[in-house]
Specification:
four-stranded antiparallel beta sheet; Rossmann fold; globular; 16 strands; about 475 residues; disordered N terminus; alpha/beta
């Protein structure tokens, strides 16, 4: 079934009073204006930051909330909407042509079944334990903790959630194995996916090998050069890796082009919580094991919750995986760290939430990197996995209501953190995770003694070692 990609991926800039097409010359479908048709209601407005948590841009611990606040009420309401219309406030939705609506609706229905199917959940639990290697440790990084103590020996305790110890070396396997199982359950024999840093590609290839599924991975040509070891692993695992001119966003477009031409036999295995519903919610659900384990492990280690959670943000899969369990716990700060590249003022960055504007891209509404005419701006980061011009609709919503905070870290700061953790803890983090770790330089001096900080170490960094040494 052929489909003009312009009708699927047409970016739209959102004005104060409605949607404006990128250009009168651009071909594509007319975006629906009714939420029932998959559109986004622009009448929705978030609570002001002052009326919820004064967290965005602040580096002070939040006050514990002992009763249901307006933020909690709003979050509960939007969670219900996310399971039906795929909406998080005004974000998300299904901005796709009719040819894809049936396929997405069928996927949504099957997802609702498996999330409550005891047999599927038991099989997934076994796979996560015996194949993926969960649960991953919540590791007290003692030397990093000591590094951030002040002259009086006071400072926060730093814990790393060791997703780098998963099979294939990243959090991506949590979602890949679950979706591959779902694809096989609905009778699909061929899997197609796109990857940036290669971690999702490797995880998908491994899951397909285990489940006897054909696997095709699309990857940007430059990303293949920068992450050549992961390309080797994907080939070794039996996947066909196809090169695409451009970066991850272009690979994603090609992967979905492949899918829409083979809807009856193939399954698009999304690794990022972006795109049309139910993709964002599905990826979030399958990654939420990270936060669920963190809550359990924190209770076992110190009898309470973390004070602060920190995760890098590209499209948002590892951040949502850690954050989602604690969204209603307003005494737990949620901090996402984006890639500032060579500086926000340079324009060479991937800081979508820090500098982007609301628009529609690749099937959903969220914050985007776009110019004044609504054209997508190419992202940049030393961490390939953070190079994406959009972001999760759910994170866009959490930003607007002030529930989560978002900051940025430059390429050089991330490289410095990569070396620091390697030399202090003997742990080599992925360059993506190094962005989250780098933010500790700014965060730790503001925290009280004994505050417990959990940082998502989303992947291992052997793939980045050569690049880091070149920079040094």
């Amino acid at each position: 079934m052929a489909c003009n990609l312009n009708t699927v991926f047409l970016p739209h800039r959102i004005s104060a009073c409605g949607r404006e097409p990128v250009s009168s010359k651009t071909q594509g479908f007319c975006l629906p204006s009714s939420p029932a048709d998959g559109g986004a209601s622009l009448a929705w407005s978030a609570l002001s930051h002052d009326s919820v948590l004064a967290t965005s841009g602040s580096l002070h611990l939040s006050t514990t909330i002992t009763r249901k606040s307006p933020t909690q009420t709003l979050i509960v309401t939007e969670e219900r909407k996310s399971t039906t219309a795929g909406k998080f406030g005004r974000y998300g939705g299904k901005f796709v042509p009719e040819t894809l609506m049936l396929c997405l609706s069928q996927l949504e229905a099957e997802l609702k079944v498996v999330l409550h199917d005891e047999e599927f959940q038991a099989e997934l639990a076994t796979a996560l334990k015996d194949y993926v290697g969960r649960e991953t440790p919540l590791y007290l990084a003692q030397r990093i903790t000591n590094h951030y103590k002040n002259s009086m020996g006071e400072g926060p305790e730093i814990y790393l959630k060791r997703e780098d110890l998963n099979h294939c070396g990243a959090h991506k396997m949590n979602n890949a194995i679950a979706q591959a199982m779902l694809a096989k359950r609905i009778g699909r024999k061929s899997i197609v996916a796109a990857t940036g840093a290669g971690q999702h590609g490797v995880a998908t290839a491994a899951a397909c090998a285990k489940l006897a599924l054909e696997c095709t991975i699309y990857m940007g040509r430059m990303d293949m050069e920068r992450q050549s070891s992961n390309v080797t692993f994907m080939n070794l695992l039996g996947a066909e890796v196809r090169s695409v001119d451009g970066s991850f966003k272009d690979a994603t477009s090609e992967a979905i082009r492949h899918w829409v031409n083979n809807l009856d036999s193939s399954y698009h295995l999304a690794g990022a919580p972006v795109g049309p519903h139910p993709c964002p919610a599905m990826v979030r659900e399958f990654q939420s094991v990270i936060g669920k384990e963190t809550r359990k492990q924190a209770m076992e280690k110190w009898g309470g919750k973390p004070d602060v959670l920190v995760a890098c943000v590209g499209s948002g899969s590892n951040a949502l995986g850690l954050f989602h369990e604690f969204v209603r716990d307003e005494d737990v700060r949620l901090i996402g760290v984006e890639a500032a590249g060579v500086g926000l003022e340079s324009g060479k960055h991937s800081a979508t939430l820090a500098t982007g504007e609301v628009g529609v891209y690749q099937g959903a509404m969220s914050y985007l990197l776009q110019d004044e005419e609504g054209q997508i701006i190419g992202p940049h980061s030393v961490a390939v996995g953070l190079e994406y011009p959009g972001v999760s609709p759910e994170l866009s919503f959490l930003k607007d209501i002030g529930r989560a905070e978002f900051y940025t870290v430059t390429d050089q700061e991330a490289i410095d953190a990569y070396r620091r953790v390697s030399q202090l803890e003997g742990i080599i983090p992925a360059m993506e995770a190094s962005h989250a770790i780098a933010f500790l330089e700014k965060l730790c001096p503001t925290l009280p003694d004994g505050a417990r900080v959990v940082v998502s170490c989303s992947g291992r960094g052997d793939k980045d070692a050569e690049m880091v040494l070149e920079h040094i």
